[in-house]
Amino acid sequence: MRLFTMDDFKPIQINLNEVLRSKLPKHYRYIPKWAVRWLERAIHQDELNQILVNMGTKTGVEAADSALHDLQVQTTLLGTENIPDSGRFIFVSNHPLGGLDGMALMSAIGHRYNGNIRFIVNDLLMAVKPL
What is the pTM of this model? Predict the structure, then answer.
């Protein structure tokens, strides 16, 4: 039996400064602080962290729905007649818009298959436990 700690329920937070420090340990001290702050604003770090907080304990399709709601993104799945109702399938997306289209796909396909879906993602997204 596994006991849960408060860390199991804490949302992941994006910290670009720490990512740079861990990924570039030998070069980190040469990166100007103003450049790090500019990048944090450019990627909307604070807004993304708030979305992660709003996800709370939601996971999978519910987490994707929460993020899409916070971003005020509405999606429409077209061509549903071409998607079988049962079986095992592989859906492929090249993510031209980054993670946003991945979350939209997770939501649309996830609702179609009652959340019984799996995604292959990179190591960065593996750290986002709700997804």
Answer: 0.71
